[in-house]
Amino acid sequence: MTINVIGAGLAGCEAAMQIANRGISVRLYEMKPQKRTPAHKTDLFGELVCSNSLKAMRVESAAGLLKEEMRRLDSFLIKCADRCQVPAGGALAVDRDIFAKLVTDGINAHPNITVIHEEITAIPDEGITVIATGPLTSDGLAKAIEARFGDSLSFFDAAAPIVTADSIDIDFAFTASRYDRGGDDDYINCPMNKEEYEIFYDALIHAERAPLHDFDVNNPKVYEGCMPVEVLAQRGEGTLRFGPMKPVGLVNPRTGHRAWALLQLRKENAAGTMYNLVGFQTNLKFPEQKRVFSLIPALHKAEFVRYGVMHRNTFLCSPKVLNSDFSVKENKKLFFAGQMTGVEGYMESAASGIMAGINAARLSEDKPTLTLPDDTMIGALSRYIADPSVKKFQPMGANFGVLPELQNRPRDKRERAAAYAARALDSLNKFLSENNGD
Length: 438
Known about the structure:
Layout: E1 2-6, H1 10-20, E2 25-29, E3 53-56, H2 62-72, H3 76-83, E4 85-86, E5 91-94, H4 96-109, E6 113-116, E7 129-131, H5 139-149, E8 153-158, E9 162-164, E10 174-175, E11 187-192, H6 194-206, H7 229-233, E12 261-267, E13 274-277, H8 286-293, E14 304-306, E15 310-315, H9 318-321, E16 327-328, E17 331-336, H10 346-364, H11 377-384, H12 413-434
Parallel strand pairs: 1-2, 1-7, 2-6, 7-17
Antiparallel strand pairs: 3-5, 4-5, 8-15, 9-13, 9-14, 10-11, 11-12, 12-13, 16-17
């Protein structure tokens, strides 16, 4: 028995590894290097196209709980991430180039995985297949999926710019992590006073944007999780100050006070030679990005090694199409995984790949497929994407709101988060014990 996995992104690589580690042969189809999507820049597997952050590490956070559940499911990508971590306060951030190289090398070295560099343009009719081609699925396969299932959702997603470290004017900045979480130099903080912020804000909302081809530029559907900073700013002058530019938890050591607004820069690579503008996903034209973001005092001499870009994301209307085990309702031998299913985020996509891979392997061995308990983060997200009662389906990332309510709900927010996490991990451990490890 050989199982097909289409796409060598985060979800596809996790699915392939889960299958291969169970002694089952995998044909992993990846169209690079023959063809790339507009957002991808390398020929490596598991390429991170937006941020290099995999979000919070604390198990008592929704994102941290998700990653801990993945660890207990023997996540391949978490192991890669741990080996190339860069300082990011309480977040798990990686050197994206090293990360992708580790993923690629691990996949290529596995004896049960055969990589085929070929674009797939039709849904396979024979055998067991996991489609994990991501939100930028190539046109041929996207059309085949739409013809089969219809009701796909098109969104636009954005990436943030990256600047060189030596071009940041540290005289206008300071290093610190919010609330002193992590190392003192994990972030470079770029404060602004009220006047500086107002000048920047006015320039931002009036800056010229790049056109979005083949889409209604006057009314784009933009996913909230990667909202372009200029779109977010148009909701009101205070929106950025309570969002990506919030100064809370950071005191400027030069003044002893909190800034009016503040941009954080996070290390993009292990060497610390490049920094990412945190929360500044954008679709501004490249010259406009240089002009507007240079109005931030610490960035007045900034050299941009990558400008922000915006690209199309396509999601299935999963409640109509998928079961909670990520199989297709009309064909249990066909699975989907990744952001196309409506899970939002790097690790959420990878987690769906873990589950699709486990279930594809179990199906090949005539075992019943699995969905994790609904009080685990992965189980709750699996059920969300397949919930027929969800009428206006939107992509969903890890959050405690998708979990069942606690019986004895603590009033304190941190105690409540810790209780959710403890319950989820206890439930997962029991589930894995009852199902012989998977």
